[in-house]
Amino acid sequence: MADDMNKMGAPLIFERSKPGARTQMLPPLDVPESLPDPCALRRCAPPLPELAEGEVSRHFSLLERRAFGVNNGFYPLGSCTMKYNPKLNDEMAALPGFADIHPLQPEHTVQGCLEALSRLDVILREITGMDAVSLQPAAGAQGEFTGVMMIKAYHESRGEGSIRTKMLIPDSAHGTNPASAAMNNYTVVTIPSDENGCVDINALRASAGSDTAGLMLTNPNTLGLYEPNVAELTRIVHDAGGLCYYDGANLNAIMGRARPGDMGFDAAHLNLHKTFAAPHGGGGPGGAAVCCKAFLSEYLPSPIVTNDNGAFTLDCGGSSSIGSIHAFYGNFLVCLKALCYLLSLGRDGVTLASSNAVLNANYLMRKLTAPDNAILLDGKPPRACMHEFVLSLKKLKSATGVSALDVAKGLLDEGMHPPTMYFPLIVDEALMFEPTETESRDELDAAAQKITALLNRAFTDPESLRSAPRSTPVRRPDEVKAARSPTLRYGCRTAQ
Amino acid sequence: MSSYIPNPDAVQRDMLQAIGLTNLDGLYSAIRDEPRVKPLNMPEGMSELETRRAVSGMASRNVIFPDIFRGAGAYRHYIPAIVKSIASKETFLTAYTPYQPEISQGILQAIFEYQSEICMLTDMDVSNASAYDGASAAAEAAAMCRVRKRARTLIASTVNPGTIATVRTYCRASDAPVTMLPAVNGLLDMDALRGAVGADVASVIVQSPNYYGLIEDWEAAARVCREAGVKLIAVCNPIALALYRTPGECGADIAVGEGQPLGIPLGFGGPYLGFMACAQSLTRSLPGRIVGETTDADGKRCYVLTLQAREQHIRREKASSSICSNEALCALTASAYIAAMGSFGLRQVAEQCCSKAHYAANALAEAGFTLRYGSPFFHEFLTECPVNADSLMARLEREGILGGLPVDGGILWCVTEMNDRGGIDRLADICKEARRHG
């Protein structure tokens, strides 16, 4: 039977459906029935699943077993900051005093919610060195969209909206940066990286000019390197009349050590589900804060929480605000988890968290780039990294035919979530490791051993890696087939 | 102070030594520009018990209303225990986006099931894995429809104001014009729509039930749109979809909406769930993640993130949107809710909402709060307010009731299956009393 289960995989919930099966959730109607005119009704009932509660429970328990979270094992997915998600935070977010609060209740009945937002706002200002915060963005990418729109509104207010049409973005940036700039109708100018993987300062100088709206920069960058000339980079852009936007995806490296506001950035977003330990939920909900310097605060999305001696109000903002980007106030319960995390860690804790994130990354990098591995890795590894590092398996691939993908798939058989693959785009056969501070030395040692063994196996038994994984619930999916003849819903093949 | 760091100080020292350093400060030698060494100005850390007390204290400073008659974009519905149990499963909670399909089949399959259910509810061909919320889903839908010569978005003024505001923000970012369409008797003015669908119009956004709870005529709007080569974006309520004509049946090109009513708590406005589904011809411009079915190396059925050539990590500035993280766990929650309620249960919720709202409308009318508009409504309705709205709300609040939302000089009420007859009668009595005593 176990074999059958394995062969069949998990049935879809629709395949478990038994018409007529149900659990009675509601009492009978206690008022006279009053239903729409028949011509207003849908023609046929949606073919939704019908199951008894026990069947629903088993279905999702099986799906859970076929997934992998931070609770299951090491998850060094670069740029994603997969740190442990403290359980208290989930419990606090489920308190009826938060979960059952309607967003349009009168202000005096939601003082606790507003206080939570206000306290998070104050802490994030301090961590980033900024003057004002909005917690409305629902994820990092929406934070970027918002921050760039504020930059655009600033230029427009100065009559330079139609002149400053270009956004400068390094070639190592996350894809969301150029996409968010394009949503604001900016032309993206790609700034190349230098031989160390940092921004080519001369290229930036050559690109910055009277048509520059701004620079979007991640620091530490996606190679896990702190931009050595960051103050100079922001100065170049400011001298050209542009503004500087900080992508906070990698903030986990530097809390309490350096602040975007001090580096010369004018606006920034932080990912609450990365640095501030809110769980990622298999693809969201995330949460983000957009932080900015005082001169940009009038453009922040509305509403903003204000604190008048402990009386909290929602301020709908002036006429310069870019407006709303969410129906209400953003992902409040995610913000609450971030606040719990920050209250637990406090001043010393956040600094210690970042330091240990950097320590763990350097420790793992040192192990993986030990001299006996060096022949397998391309290029000279950096002497030190911040919270993450990128290895190139280009040499390994040309020597053995085993790719970064193959190694990643081999790690699946070792019970470890692979690092981020093929990013940043400027590194061939890239594997990007971000261990985070919540992994123990034992875990790092074990991971290093597994990875080293796989790299060696590429020479002795490359086929075993090219055909990995073998022990997972399914093996490599046919992604070409998925895209060429898409089946995007149950019971219906979509012809393209 | 809890930092969740598993390595004790002594181990940290050993690790530092292994990389040739003596202290943690040494890790930051790369920071040349004014390294920040002074401690952050923020509170000291706390133990778990202290944090629990502090945060529970904030929760206790909110008022939980036992009776809620307010909707306007966020709806209190019954959430079965099983839904909460599924939504808090640790692995669902702590996984990242399913980039490694071999170990993420559970999450991928859950999203595939969710996509299928959204298609079934809306009668559309293709759904994405979710957008941030209903408002931004509408904004993304407007962006999907824009082509070079057709950039204008028309919005019925009967759409939820939060959605209108968000669509305006997104359109402004793209320098795309927006025109509001007037209403007649609380419904979109079809003549105004006919007059407005010019050659520069990309899409029209029409919500039903609309902000006032009234059922709009999507079918008539779709006819006007089709003749003019304009796309119709139908904003819908997922509970109402169990009962009413669907966007697909009415000929809409895109269906979007706020998925919060599907088992997601009010949570002071988020996280919620933007759902988005479209006609097949628009698949390649749909933003966000999409899960597809395929087979693995052994021919076994499995699921993957697919059609990624639309997305930011591949297309960068040419992507259909910058969205990356979406609301996967909320989509999974909605899917668990749909499974727990089933086809029958979902329709029962819709029917009870509708019946109870009509009962409440009658009771309130008898109390002197007459309906402003005469056309059919689902579970929200706008009444006149013959008394001072603020003092009425204060009076209701003293009785543990969150009254309707003061809107346009009247009150927008919402009634769901959570409101029982006794509670509705009590509401009507208090309103009657308020009117008598002023």
Describe this entry's structure for a reader.
The complex is a heterodimer of chains A (496) and B (438). In chain A, 38% of the residues lie in helices and 11% in strands. Chain A is of the alpha/beta class and 496 residues long. Chain A folds into two domains: 89-346, Type I PLP-dependent aspartate aminotransferase-like (Major domain) (Aspartate Aminotransferase, domain 2, 3-Layer(aba) Sandwich), CATH 3.40.640.10; 347-477, Aspartate Aminotransferase, domain 1 (Alpha-Beta Complex), CATH 3.90.1150. Chain A has a seven-stranded mixed sheet with strand order 1-7-6-5-4-2-3, sandwiched between helices. Chain A has a three-stranded antiparallel sheet with strand order 10-12-11, with helices on one face. Chain A has a two-stranded antiparallel ribbon with strand order 8-9. Chain A is globular, with a radius of gyration of 25 Å. The model of chain A is unreliable at 1-6 (pLDDT under 50). Chain B is of the alpha/beta class. Chain B has two domains: 67-76 and 342-437, Alpha-Beta Complex (Aspartate Aminotransferase, domain 1), CATH 3.90.1150.10; 81-335, Aspartate Aminotransferase, domain 2 (3-Layer(aba) Sandwich). Chain B has 14 helices and 16 strands. In chain B, the strands form five sheets. Chain B has a seven-stranded mixed sheet, with helices on both faces. In chain B, helix 6 (134-145) crosses helix 7. Chains A and B meet through helix 3, helix 4, helix 5, helix 6 and helix 7 of A and helix 1, helix 2, helix 3, helix 4 and helix 5 of B.
